[in-house]
């Protein structure tokens, strides 16, 4: 079992936007299974009004996709850890194709992200996969491209 | 994260525009990434979604697909991004959106989303 300590040694994402809790299976360079618990204590629910309807508690699509994408980055970085952007590369999402949102996700569930590498080219990885909740698929991703760029090229800070 | 502070500036039915302030002190930048703050690209998808919801607040309307996103350049803290959305393929059970997100005159992201009207 791979917990947050090991995840932090692999990727540079940190609180409040580190959205993977553990990795349960990995075949480096090929596949990975990771998990993230969604709870109402997350910052995205902090400012909802008292009378917010049930649908307002659907986990934001951006965070669902970001959590899945971080699982992809963990797989891409498994053999080449990149925990500090300032010392290494910066991970940038380059493109996404064919993401189907099959059902909304609510607090109280554990997301099971499945990722597989389609191809790796130079400093980019193209991955596909899905997310399940209690065995039901809630997200399918046909193609996600993540690129590693030199942080020195992009310029540090602003 | 402090919600999705989208301000709609134009709502002409099939053409919608909004502006989103990218607060330099948004807590997300502490973690993305330490010492190198850039906006998580997928937040831009949320800005488009929040804009669509702001003008079409229909119960049961749900984003069901992110058909395509191209991230062209990273977004830094501070300043604002403008969102321009074209609605098309409008039918009783849903529609598609093409959106461009820009800083100033520079496009940072293009995307195509699909929405479906489900039972509320």
UniProtKB/TrEMBL annotation, chain A:
Keywords: Lyase. The keyword Lyase applies. SUPFAM superfamilies: Thioesterase/thiol ester dehydrase-isomerase. GO terms for molecular function: (3R)-hydroxyacyl-[acyl-carrier-protein] dehydratase activity. The keyword Lyase applies. InterPro entries: FabA_FabZ, HotDog_dom_sf. Signal peptide: none annotated. It comes from the Bacteria. Its EC number is 4.2.1.59. Gene3D superfamilies: Hotdog Thioesterase. Coiled coil: none annotated. Belongs to the thioester dehydratase family. FabZ subfamily. PANTHER family: 3-HYDROXYACYL-[ACYL-CARRIER-PROTEIN] DEHYDRATASE. This is 3-hydroxyacyl-[acyl-carrier-protein] dehydratase.
From TrEMBL, chain B:
Its EC number is 4.2.1.59. The keyword Lyase applies. Residues 12-97 form the ApeI dehydratase-like domain. It comes from the Bacteria. Pfam families: ApeI-like. One of its GO terms (molecular function) is (3R)-hydroxyacyl-[acyl-carrier-protein] dehydratase activity. Keywords: Lyase. This is 3-hydroxyacyl-[acyl-carrier-protein] dehydratase. It comes from Kutzneria viridogrisea.
